[in-house]
Amino acid sequence: MISDNRYHILYNPVSGGGKSRDVLTYVMEKFDEHDIPYEVLETHQDRGAGDIIRMLENGIEDDIRLIIIGGDGTIGECLDAMVETKRFRVGIIPSGSANDFVHGMGLPLKKEESLRRIISDREGSWIDIGYVSYGGATRRYGISSGIGFDALVCYRVDHSKLKKILNKIGLGGLVYGIVAATTLVTVKTCHATIHLDNRCVDVPRLVFASSQNTPYEGGSVMMAPLAKTNDGKQDICVGHSLSGILALVGFVKILRKKHMKDRHFVVRPFSKCVIECDRAMCLHADGEHLGFYKRAEFGTIEKAMRIYGKKEN
């Protein structure tokens, strides 16, 4: 293992319909202009973001200065691959369609401000990340993990041709709202028991339950407005007993941030949450489809890593 003070730029060339390439060019020009040492590590079919993270962990003995140029999927893959998360100091320059992680962390969307903050921030700010355990596996996430309706939306978005079309014209974030509206028509509920810290709640008609590390998911939809990324907790947002016109009204209330006081929703912080369903439900973490499961456990890894350029929330 060696000591390495360079910025390691992890770059996903297909993120945001290919606009990440322009972002990389800008970053390289600025680093060259100011004689800042760096290396570019490009993801491709035979070397994913997780492979690059493992290579850095195994090859560098000190803290690792990482810049990710990509979207929520790339960021999520990086977080899940990190074994020694506390060694990483991470800067994000977004190039995805939704960019929920960036919104939730209070990071800028524009590449110029993103890079300025990364360079000027020497230490970084500690953040929590979440984890979900399911079917004998565990997955870490930076934005959210959910079961039911929101997970089904993520699954359908990931397989949607519309996302690629909208990405090409810079409107990729709209696909979540469009797919969510169409999914409402066919979504099925389940009978669930939710163990929330020391409470046990019976939910006869669960539509979805989302564990939020940040307030946002699904194209900057504010599921848990009071969620913080450094309080040692996750915030759960549960939707239940919604169908037909009620489902549509409930969806609109979430978009307008009016769901907190609605009886069909429960939003609150927690340390540990276990959800048990009477049938297998769709499960996701940071928009990645994990499969269909009856049971999932959610929790927090406190002060897991440091982020450059974060505004405290």
Structural summary, described in words:
By secondary structure, the protein is an alpha+beta fold. It folds into two domains: 124 residues, Probable inorganic polyphosphate/atp-NAD kinase, domain 1 (Rossmann fold, 3-Layer(aba) Sandwich); 171 residues, Tumour Suppressor Smad4 (Sandwich), CATH 2.60.200. 29% of the residues lie in helices and 37% in strands. The chain contains nine helices and 15 strands. Strands 1, 2, 3, 4, 5, 6, 7, 8, 9, 12, 13, 14 and 15 form a 13-stranded mixed beta sheet that branches. Helix 1 links the parallel strand 1 and strand 2. Helix 2 packs parallel to helix 3 and helix 6 crosses helix 8. The relative contact order is 0.17. The mean pLDDT is 89.
Brief synopsis:
The chain is an alpha+beta fold and 313 residues long. The chain has two domains: 7-130, Rossmann fold; 131-301, Tumour Suppressor Smad4 (Sandwich).
CATH architecture of the largest domain: Sandwich
How many domains, as an integer? 2
According to CATH, what is the class of the largest domain?
Answer: Mainly Beta
Q: On the 0-100 scale, what is the average pLDDT? A: 89
**Weakly predicted, low-confidence segments:** none
